[in-house]
Amino acid sequence: MKRRGGRAGANIEAMDEGQPAPRRSKLALVGLIFSLLGFLTCGLTSPVGLVISIIAFIRRRGRVALIGIIVGALGSCGGGCCCAGIFGALGSAASGAVALAEMVGPEFSTGVRMGVIEWRIGEYERESNRLPDSLEELDLPADERVDGWGRAWQFHLHRREPGYELRSAGPDGQFDTDDDAVNRSAAGDR
């Protein structure tokens, strides 16, 4: 390569004729794009970008692949945590969302926990093609087995109209009163 002087003393590299242009890794670029898209999709595409970038980096060490790995790792962790409150929970971030919600108050904590359980019910249904008969089938962590006041949930599975009802007794501790937090889900809602 020859160096040519440019404006303000900057050096511009020019390729000699007959010398091939350096190849860019398309795989690394795809990995970086998926990693970056993770920030727009709350971390959903970041793990894909991370894996693709790792493969590209193993095949051919390059800056684009390395940036894809870093961005994919940040998006996988950070993106999921940021959206845990929005979507109810994303995987292992669910327990972190519950812990954070406890700092705000029992009403908010109950709402977040309800969202987490809803998400877990949806995951269970996708894996087993049926709703759980009880919350015990979900194998919930201890902090998700109770509402924001530390009381057990009430879960009813509807047989005639496929769906369920998840209920917290609310501040008064009594079920079927006006202060209950209730979430009903029908087959078409999921």
Structure notes:
- This protein is an alpha+beta fold and 190 residues long.
- The chain has two domains: 24-86; 106-189, Glycoprotein, Type 4 Pilin (2-Layer Sandwich), CATH 3.30.700.
- The protein has five helices and five strands.
- The chain has helices at 26-40, 46-59, 63-87, 93-104, 106-128; strands at 2-5, 11-14, 154-158, 163-168, 181-186.
- The strands form two sheets. The chain has a three-stranded antiparallel β-sheet with strand order 3-4-5, with helices on one face. Strands 1-2 form a two-stranded antiparallel sheet.
- Helix 2 (46-59) runs antiparallel to helix 3, helix 3 (63-87) packs across helix 4 (93-104) and helix 4 packs antiparallel against helix 5 (106-128).
- It is elongated and about 65 Å long.
- The model is unreliable at 1-16 and 84-92 (pLDDT under 50).
How many structural domains does the protein architecture include? Answer: 2
Number of helices: 5
CATH level-two architecture of the largest domain: 2-Layer Sandwich
Mind telling me the CATH superfamily name of the largest domain? Answer: Glycoprotein, Type 4 Pilin
Query: What structural class results from the helix and strand content?
Result: alpha+beta
Outline the low-pLDDT stretches: 1-16, 84-92
Mean residue pLDDT: 75
Biggest sheet descriptor: 3 strands, antiparallel
Residues in helix, %: 40-55%
Features:
190 residues, alpha+beta, Glycoprotein, Type 4 Pilin, three-stranded antiparallel β-sheet, 5 helices, 5 strands, elongated, disordered N terminus
